[in-house]
Amino acid sequence: MRPLRSSRTGLAIVWRPKQIFPTHMAGIITRLVYQKRNRQRVNVYLDDAYAFALPDLEAARLHIGQQLDEDEMAQLQRVGEDAKARDRALRLLGTRPRSEHEIRTRLRKAAFDDPTCQRVLQRLQEQGYVDDAEFVQWWLQNRNQFHPSGRRLLAAELRQKGIAPDLITHALTHLDEQTLAVAATQQRVSRWAHLDRENFRRKMLAFLQRRGFSYSSSGEACEQAWSGIHESSSPSYD
C-alpha cells in the first residue's frame, strides 16, 4: 500500500488496519473439584486458578478443557452465587418462618449483593417458602400461645420484621386484646398473689402495659386476676 503524504508537513502517513484482539475469552476449565466442607458444591478452576463454585448438578454440565468466554463465566458465577444465597436462606427458614425483610437483611450481612438477594427471594416466594402474610399469622399464633401481647407491641414487632403497614392493620383488626390480657396475667399471678391490692394492681398494670396492652384492657384484666385470687382463697362452706 502506497503511503499518503501530508501536504502540510511533507511527512509520509502510513495507514495500518486496526488490530482486533479477542476480549471475551475468560479461560479454559482445567479442574473441577468437590469442596471438602460441602460435597454438593464444586470448585471450578480456569487456567489452573480458582474462578467460582457451582452446585454439583450445574457443574456436571461442564468438562475439563471446556473454553468459557466472559459472558458464560458471568452467567455461571451468577448461578453459583444464587445457589449459595438460597442455601443460606433455607438454613434460616429451617429454624423458624422468616419475613422477606429478615431474609434480605441476613443475606446482605453475608455480603450478597442486592440483585442476588432479589433473585433468590423471588424464587423462594414463588416456591412458597417466603410469604409475609403467612409469616404474620404464624407470628401472632406464636405470641398468643407463648407470650400474650397487646396490639401496640405486636404492631411494633411486625414493623421491625419489615411487614407492610396494610398487612399489620388487617392482621390486628380482629385481635381479642382483652382475652389476651387475661391470659398474660396468668404468667404473673402466682408471683404477686401475696401482695395487697394496691401493689398487686400497680405491678400487674405495669407488666401488661409493657406487653403492649391498652390501659382499659390492662385495668379489666388486672381486676379479673385480683378477683380470681381472692375467690380461690375464700373458704367454702358447702
Structure summary:
The protein has eleven helices and six strands.
Would you mind describing this structure in some detail?
- The chain is α+β, with helices and mostly antiparallel strands.
- The chain has two domains: 25-126, Arc Repressor Mutant, subunit A (Orthogonal Bundle), CATH 1.10.10; 132-228.
- Helices cover 55% and strands 13% of the residues.
- It has helices at residues 56-59, 70-93, 100-109, 114-126, 132-146, 151-160, 165-172, 177-185, 189-192, 197-210, 215-233; strands spanning 4-5, 12-13, 25-34, 41-46, 49-55, 67-69.
- Strands 5-4-3-6 form a four-stranded antiparallel β-sheet.
- A hairpin with a 6-residue loop joins β3 (25-34) and β4.
- α10 (197-210) crosses α11 (215-233).
- The protein is elongated and about 85 Å long.
- Residues 13-24 have low confidence and may be disordered.
Task: Describe how the helices and strands are arranged.
Elements lengths: L3 E2 L6 E2 L11 E10 L6 E6 L2 E7 H4 L7 E3 H24 L6 H10 L4 H13 L5 H15 L4 H10 L4 H8 L4 H9 L3 H4 L4 H14 L4 H19 L5
Antiparallel strand pairs: 1-2, 3-4, 3-6, 4-5
Alpha carbon gyration radius: 33 Å
Q: Count the domains.
A: 2
CATH superfamily of the largest domain: Winged helix-like DNA-binding domain superfamily/Winged helix DNA-binding domain
Give the helix tally.
11
Oligomerization:
single chain
Helix amount:
40-55%
Are there runs of 5+ residues with pLDDT below 50, and where?
13-24
* Strand order across the largest sheet: 5-4-3-6
- Write the H/E string, N to C: EEEEEHEHHHHHHHHHH
